[in-house]
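Bug #77: duplicate submission created two jobs. Keeping one. Sequence:
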Amino acid sequence: MAAMRYPSFLLPLCALALVLGSSACTTPLPLRARQALLPADILLLGEQHDAPEHQAWEKDTVQWLAQGDDLAALVLEMAEQGRSTAALPTDASEAAVQKALFWNDSAWPWAAYGPVTMAAVRAGVPVLGGNLPRKLLNAATANTALDAQLSDAAWLRQLRAVREGHCDLLPEKMLPGMVRVQIARDMQLAQTAAAAVQSGKVVLLVTGVAHAQRSLGVPRYLPKNLVSKIALAQAGQALEAIEKEADWIHHTPALPDKDDCAPLRQRGLPPPPAS
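Kept job's structure:
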């Protein structure tokens, strides 16, 4: 791929700040991160969905890349494949953007993901839905051919992750189908990102940590001729296993302790699909 430019106006400012020992230069990708992650055809940002600082980091990254005309597209797990803002003007209203993306606010609060989405729209960068359309979920659940996409060891890891991600509330017989859905989502996200690649620019894929991991997620299904890099945001201390899944770990403060499974156990209902 062609070498990608870094936004030129930031580099001298950051260099001066470093020389002066100042922390005023707060780019979303510090120098070491840029060296680890760029250039790339596709840059995956893996987030914890309940961490507002992660969504703020994603918005800042979109703005930083767009200011240098280095951003080809923003692909979101939070919208279905086939939905796009490409036909909208840069001054489109938030309502128009939500309509174009068929946004599901109950699943993905616009208050959290509107800022990163609108940052791309305002910069003239297309926002593309990348997730598996809901109408294909049943077919994916029953598609046993997807089982061959993972080795036996990787399949068991994914199965364990799905079980734990659903608070151990799902019947065991449902788990293989849920793993297939996870695989199908990863493949769909990879296909959408790969189709948006432009020479000399980067496609930014915003998704959950599980989808962004190198060994189990989207990177497994990207074309081998494309350069992909992974940055995972972690609230609090990152596990060593997670660090091995990425080219860069973006650390944010730990979240308040809470038991996400408690209300679900009380109701006896499974949580929504993990991502």
